[in-house]
Amino acid sequence: MFDKEFNGAAPPAIRLTARLQLRIPVAGDIHFLTGLFSRPELVAHRPVPRPDSPEESTARLARDIEHWRDRGFGRWAVETKAGLIGFGGVTVSKEFGSLNISYHLQPESWGHGYATELVRETLTFAFDDLHADRVIGLVRPVNSASRRILEKCGFSFEREVMLHGAPTNMYGLAKRAVRS
């Protein structure tokens, strides 16, 4: 379904918000990504809260780049004037048959509204450019900060699902429910 529906959406190479520059990830982002996913604070809410190995980070970046190549969209590299702070955007969730929003920002950037700004721009892209009807967000129950970001952006709790062997809350947002 998503292969034909969204493939070739041809987004601009760089997307700008008030404070963020969103760009397609490149192989040169690997050093930042490896450092990001080695942070205990970042991986604390995983079923097994251990940092990624360098090989796992390499595979993660390769999947993100491949998603862009195959579908014309995916997770962006997120930059401020100070430089790269993380990754986020929408990808196809084969498990749940929807677009899944995700974001991973370095802990030093938490609490500055960057994740909310990223989520809002991602929703604009998903609904306006990709013509998605719905976007989901998957959050571990203990990750209250991520839950608050989704709720602030209009998402509502739908149900608990099992993801990678752990209970996960699924939040959803339909196009008609998007707040201005």
How would you explain this protein's 3D organization?
With 180 residues, the chain is an alpha+beta fold. It contains six helices and eight strands. It has helices spanning 2-6, 30-36, 40-43, 54-71, 114-129, 144-152; strands spanning 14-16, 21-23, 75-80, 83-93, 98-105, 134-139, 156-163, 166-174. It has an eight-stranded mixed beta sheet with strand order 1-2-3-4-5-6-8-7, sandwiched between helices. Strand 5, helix 5 (114-129) and strand 6 (134-139) form a beta-alpha-beta unit.
List its traits.
alpha+beta, globular
Topology:
Blueprint: H1 2-6, E1 14-16, E2 21-23, H2 30-36, H3 40-43, H4 54-71, E3 75-80, E4 83-93, E5 98-105, H5 114-129, E6 134-139, H6 144-152, E7 156-163, E8 166-174
Parallel strand pairs: 5-6
Antiparallel strand pairs: 1-2, 2-3, 3-4, 4-5, 6-8, 7-8
Q: Could you provide a short overview of the structure?
A:
33% of the residues lie in helices and 30% in strands.
- Report the sheet with the most strands, covering strand number, pairing sense and barrel closure: 8 strands, mixed
Enumerate how many helices there are, as a single number: 6
Q: Widest sheet: strand order? A: 1-2-3-4-5-6-8-7
What is the gyration radius calculated from CA atoms? Answer: 15 Å
Report the span from N to C terminus: 29 Å
| Low-pLDDT sequence parts | none
H/E series: HEEHHHEEEHEHEE
